[in-house]
Structure formats: structure tokens, C-alpha cells
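Recall that a protein's primary structure is simply its ordered list of amino acids. Everything else, from secondary elements to tertiary packing, is in principle encoded there. The following example makes that idea concrete.
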Amino acid sequence: MPELAGRLRRLATSWPADLLLAAIVVGWSLAYLGLIAAPQDRRWPVLAYVLPYAAALAVRRRWPVAAAAAACAGLIAVRLLGVAHVVSGLLAAPFFWTPFLIAYSLGTGVGLVAGLACAALFAAGLELASSDGINPIFVMITIGPWLVGRIVLSRRKMIEQLQARNAELRAEQELFARESVRYERARIARELHDIVAHCLSVMVVQASAGQRVADAGGDGMAEALESVAEAAAQARAEIGRLVELLGGELPSGTSPGLPMVSELVRRAGATGLAVTCRFLVSGDHLAPAASEAAYRVVQEALTNALKHAPGAPVDITVSGRDGEVEVGIVNAPPRQVPSGLERSGGGFGLAGMRDRIAACGGRLTSGPTPAGGWRVSALLPADPTG
């Protein structure tokens, strides 16, 4: 039933419906002229009024101005041919309500000035064709429907604008969804890089040290293997925490933060790297997210030092100034032959650090030192509640 009602609604608002209505008007007029006692010599002049009027009704949707002009021409013909008294009674019935449709089309399909002018001329034509003198009803059945058409037109334009805006919003939502997916992939890749790169670098260095120890007689092999096992366990624990976060679960362990830098220093020192760390301000001065970002910056800087500056001492300083916490990592020029680790990785470490720090409202700078080493400095806003 709703489908049938929709089809009937579409048919009633289509051009074929107007054509059918015009045919009904012509058929009504021909039947009337053939049945009533209208003067024989007046029948053909009446058709000169009926046919243009019916044609106007048929084309009112597509060409409303032409339809109004044709209807006015038919009304003027009534007066000029002197058949105004014949076009009355039952013959005038269909022509009494068709001005509603033509005037409504002028309101919905023509501009303001042109539509109002055509509606006024249409009302004047009806007054001219009337055999009863001036009748205010003709103004009501033309200007009134024209106003309704203008209101409907404004509502249609508003609906079109809303539909266009909805389409824009859908496109923006799709773009936002794609960007969110891209950002999330980049974040996961950054997390995996930070977790795996450091631990694997430590494992490779310790494995190389263990190999040298084995070649020299085996003294210190247990310590090297223990460091490899610790790095592997750390990687496994942090990857498990990342999987829990991606699954929407609360991680079972605590997030790494700036106070845990000492553990990083210990493991890096176990590889033979000369690392010093000075806390001139407590790591509790940072919010949890900023503290984790600072931890990852130190982790990445130590990884880069292991890869690109083997044997170079590294100095880590955590200080506070002007409501900010500065984490600085400086390494000297390399003092050993390259280990091959410098060719590993995709070169995304600095970009990942910069994104992490920027997400916490801080800023990161990096670059070579005058002595030929490398410096990384992260400035993070201090937590007022720390």
C-alpha cells in the first residue's frame, strides 16, 4: 500500500499528469458544447478559449511563463470574441480551479519579479473575461497560490542546501575516518618501532659481545645472554601491553615513564655503552602521557646512539625551567667501528619522537653538536599537580 501511494504521488506531480488533466478539460468542454443548447455560431469561438487554456495547463510545470501567456491569450479571446456569457455555468467549472495550478507553477518555477508580474496579468485576464464585472476572487485564486508556490520554492531550496551539506558532512566523515585509520596505523607502527628497535638493538649488541666473549674463552657469556633475555622479555611485555590497548582493554602493567629511565640506563650500560643520567627535577613533574613520551624519547636516543655512535658516551639530563621539563640526550662522536646496525630501521625514529612530544603539547629539537656528536632535546609542559 505505501508503494502504491508513492507511485500515485509521483504520477500526480509529473508532467504526464498535467497532460492528462488538460485532455480531461478539453473533453469536458467538447462534451458540454455538444450537449447543451449553446448557439451553433458560438461553439467554435469557445474552443478558441478552451484550447489555449488546456495547452497552458499541460505545460505549466516546464514552461510556466508560456503557460500563463497562453492562458491570458485565451481569456482575452473570450472578451474579444464576445463569448464571455457562454463561458459560464458548468463550462466554467474546470477553468475555475485551474488558475490555482498555473499560479502555483509561477511561484515555484519563475523568479520573484517575473512570477509576480505573470500572476498579476493572469488575474487581470480573469477579470477581463468575467461577465460579472470586477470580482476579488480572481486575485485570491492567482496571487494566493503564487505566494504558496514561493514558500514551497524556498523550502525546496532549503532542503537542497541541507542535502548538499549532508553530502559534504558524509564526505568529511569518510575523510576523517580514513585519516583516523591512517593516524592509528602510524601510531601502532611508531609504538612497535619504539618497542622493538631498542630491544633488538640491545640484543644484537649483546649477542655480538657474547660472540666475542665466546671466541676469547667464554668468560662473561652468561652476562651477555642474561642481557639478551632481559631485552627480549621487555619487548614481549611491552608488545603484550600494546595488544591489550588495541583490544580495548586496560593494560595489566604500568606504562613506562620518565622514572624508569634508570632501567634503560642500566641495560644500555650492560652493553658497554657509557651512559650517565642526572635528574635535576623529579620525573613526577610530568603528566603520565608526557612522562611516557619522555621515556620513549630517551629510549629512541639510546637506540640511535647504539646504532650510529658505537662506543660513544651518552649523557642524559632531566631538568626543569619556567613550568617546563627538559629532557636532553647528548652523545659524543662514535669511538668504535660501525656494527652494521646503522643500516637497520626505516628512518622514522626522529619523526615518531617529534609526533609524540607534539601530542603532549611539547616540542622536540635535534641536531649535531659542535664536537661532532648528536643532541636531542625535548621540552614538555610540567604537570601543575605533580
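DSSP finds eleven helices and five strands in the chain. The first helix runs from residue 2 to 12.
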